[in-house]
Amino acid sequence: MTTEPGATRDAHLRADCTIDADGRIAFTFRSPAAAPGSRPPQLLLRPRPKKGQPEKVPHALDLEPLDDGRLCAVLEPRPALAEGRWDVYLLAEPGAARQRVRPGLRDLRALVDGQARDWPSPVAVRVPYTTKDGYLAVRAWLRTAHAEVEGIEVTDRTMTVRARLHGTTLADGAAVRLRLRGGDGVVRTLEPRVASDGRAFSFTVDYGELAVGQGKGSRVWDLSVQSRLDATASPVRLGRLFDDVADRKEIFVHPAAQIGAVAVRPYYTVDNDLSVEVTAATA
Amino acid sequence: MKISFLLHNAYGIGGTITTTFNLAQALAERHEVEIVSVLRHRERPNFTLDPKVSLTPLVDLRHEKEHPLHLRPARVFPVAEYRHHQYSELTDQRIGECLAAIDADVVIGTRPGLNVHLALQAPEHVVRIGQEHLTLGNHPPRLRTVLRRAYRRLDVLTAVTEADAAAYRRRMRLPGVRVEALPNSVPDPVLPAADGTARIVVAAGRLVPVKRYDLLIEAFALVAAEHPDWQLRIYGKGEEQDRLRQLIHRLGLYENVFLMGAAAPMEAEWVKGSIGAAASNFEPFGMTIVEAMRCGLPVVSTDCPYGPGEIIEDGVDGRLVPVGDRDALGAALLDLVRDDERRRRMGRTAMANARRFAPVPVVEHAERLMDEAMSARRTGRRTAPERGRIRNALVSQGFAARDTAHAAAARALRTVRRGQR
């Protein structure tokens, strides 16, 4: 249960939203959400602060009446939202307490075939979603470049990943990096197979190599791609962002393979990035 | 007029809840409407309920789970009813009190056990309408025997299909009770319809064995083999989740078939697809089929008893395939996947044909039933012109005898088993 100040328990403060392929989001309240006042009511998008960090300035949008009297606010594609989770609030009038908004219909059909498009740098993605406690929020990603996973094929000892780079291209010496999380810079590298367009690439991870040195418990390897040999080029994280699924972890689930005493499986993190988990069998 | 619905649990997810909310909301345009929810386990309903409809819970499981009366089995709510284990002396008492004090003109029960409460406990002046969202054929003999006795005291009994209504008329002798089909209604969609271009097949429902999502996944393997860019999205939660995930993994379909979790409302999910699918062995109505059609999707469904065949016109606005036939289901899906033009045409037809399940026609039907039952009760004449009365009586007595025998045999068997323990 939320105890946040300004939070609302009003079950009927509900907004529909529609997103287009450019990321423009129209938020619409079905019934008038506020009495006409001197200033229009506003929709606030507030970046959820990281633990221990101060609250950032919210993004405010005026709510304008449509012909049928419903109130609507449009979030344009620019400026891009910072990466993270943005909670949606209604500010009925200046000085009033902000109220959290519940989701109505989220029409996200324009996002479904996002992988068919080219995403220029910076890669900015938005997906309106419902929070665990049932409120409307927008998940945003903002990355200079992004490596979109288009398919994963697992066998009983390998996984082969097909991906496509957006916002930059792969040059000679490009490398896929598997970085051990919390592993003091332990990194394994692989050479990807790169298509002639310098964008599409694929690689095969031998699970056996990740299982080497596995002790008790579990370890996680985060996957990224370094676009060229130059060590100053920052690695581009692999993930799957280009559709309507804001939280992929429990939906896009891949089989685990048993390598000796350990289980290995690729998975999507809470940020929809791709990682591999290696877990020692519990005896 | 004032209308009260008696519902098992308005705070859960399921077809009966959805359809009761839909009907209640549509009736609330012209009447005073209340939903009495016997149980409550959370703060708010999963589905949004129009504030015009009032919601009254009777037993709050969040703090009454350990109530001494709730630990004792129900006696009014029939033992043979599927949900008897969730009922108790406390629910008996609260429902009884609620009915005794009710100021509604019409009370509508929404499941067999609650219809029994209604039949036995509603005050004399109240019109009693029992709704059956399940089917007679599937009720165990013991339950049929109880209902055969209690339902005589109803004014109207509605089934959700013509087939089931016919079964009630044939197999139960309910003199003076009007038995009719009243289909579930589905609200008018708010979003633009699906345009038939998406490469997604959508299914929705609880993940329980009778829905045969295993069959649907196996059938979809045929689609994925030929069209790897197509997805199957299954919305819902339930006991089958893990088993279905294992099946998806075993078939190597983890990049094509997704268990999406529950979604309410479904409308925004249907419009992302271009084909709806249902693989049930048994479907009393087929609410999700109508929902998908109203959003412009042709639906491929098994032709199971009773709903799908009364909703889908095979080859015109969807496809009907034999129950449990993986290859037929897969082939029917593939036909629509391969033929963009046919898929779109059938989707448009589905949308037009499913308008008969819109709230307006269904509510008008319900109002007519209520009005007629009310004037019949006022004039002391309880309705229903009876055709072929003697023949029906003989037939239904045959069924009654059989059910009694079955019930007795089942009881005897249980006694024997108990003795052997």
Features:
heterodimer; A: 283 residues; mainly beta; Immunoglobulin-like; 2 domains; six-stranded antiparallel sheet; 1 helix; disordered N terminus; B: 421 residues; Rossmann fold; seven-stranded parallel sheet; six-stranded parallel sheet; globular
Strand and helix layout:
The complex is a heterodimer of chains A (283) and B (421).
Chain A: E1 14-19, E2 25-29, E3 42-47, E4 59-62, E5 64-65, E6 71-75, E7 84-91, E8 99-100, E9 102-107, E10 123-130, E11 136-143, E12 146-154, E13 158-166, E14 175-180, E15 187-190, E16 193-194, E17 200-206, H1 207-211, E18 218-226, E19 236-239, E20 257-259, E21 262-268, E22 274-280
Parallel strand pairs in A: 1-9, 12-19
Antiparallel strand pairs in A: 1-2, 2-6, 3-4, 3-7, 5-6, 7-8, 7-11, 10-11, 12-13, 13-17, 14-15, 14-18, 16-17, 18-19, 18-22, 20-21, 21-22
Chain B: E1 2-9, H1 15-27, E2 32-40, E3 54-60, H2 61-64, H3 89-100, E4 106-109, H4 112-121, E5 127-132, H5 141-150, E6 156-159, H6 162-171, E7 178-181, E8 200-204, H7 213-226, E9 231-235, H8 241-250, E10 257-261, H9 267-270, E11 275-278, H10 287-294, E12 299-302, H11 308-311, E13 318-321, H12 326-338, H13 340-353, H14 359-378, H15 389-420
Parallel strand pairs in B: 1-2, 1-4, 2-3, 4-5, 5-6, 6-7, 8-9, 8-11, 9-10, 11-12, 12-13
